[in-house]
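Notes from the 1:1 (GR / supervisor)

We went over the backlog. Supervisor wanted to see one worked example end to end before approving the batch request, so GR pasted a single chain during the call. The sequence is below; no edits were made to it. Supervisor asked that the structure be written out right there so they could see what the output format looks like.
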Amino acid sequence: MEPVNVPTPNGDVVVTASEWGSGRPFVILHGGAGPASTHRFAEMLGGSGGARAIVPVHPGFNGTPRPEHLRSVAGLAELYLAWMDQLELRDVVLVGNSIGGWIAAELALRGGSRLGRLVLVDAGGLTIDAHPAPDVFSLSLDQIGQMSYRDPQRFRIDPSKMSDPQRAAVAGNRAALKLYGGPSMADPTLLGRLPAIHLPTLVVWGAADRMIPRQHGEAFASSIPNARLEIIEEAGHLPQLEAPESLLRVVKEFAGSR
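Structure output shown during the call:
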């Protein structure tokens, strides 16, 4: 997909994205692991028939430009609403993982006729004092992997074997993540605002997620009207990487249900 120049009140923002397939649009918002963490799932979704899977890159990730004024989850939500207008997308199934789920929730709270359904996959953004998420910025890459996957060894990245460009990309993504999510990677007001979401909503959680506790998924599902919780036993924080077939099945079933 060609980059899209999106007009905003503070100036134009260039949004780059990849897409697979054709049919009903599924917009997939990535988490701190970057857009590549969603590409295999998006390709499977696009190849499943009747689905156009679109993965935008949050400006600042993967070395993409980020204007100085764009520095919050709320700002990203506003940007993506304008971006969907530019693309004239309709009846969108909005899928967000981790901070991408937080962005998706903010998008849904802003409404808009272009959204049809909402899927939150191990979404971030909530403050639950009894079940806090860890401080991701205090963790090493290896520790993040240990907490994110049901089978960490399968996805382990050896930092000593990374090239300088790879290290720079990881550092840039981490900086963009902290800028958007803030040090706490949460918004204390989000939980209380969730009842205003009126889209049919599916909350998906990996049973082995040690990055964001399952209680956060339960809170999303109980606070959003017409929402339900689906647990994927064979996954952690990134079901699209560990169990893409299971995630594809539940997302397609939910998108097609009435």
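Supervisor's comment: The radius of gyration is 17 Å.
Batch request approved.
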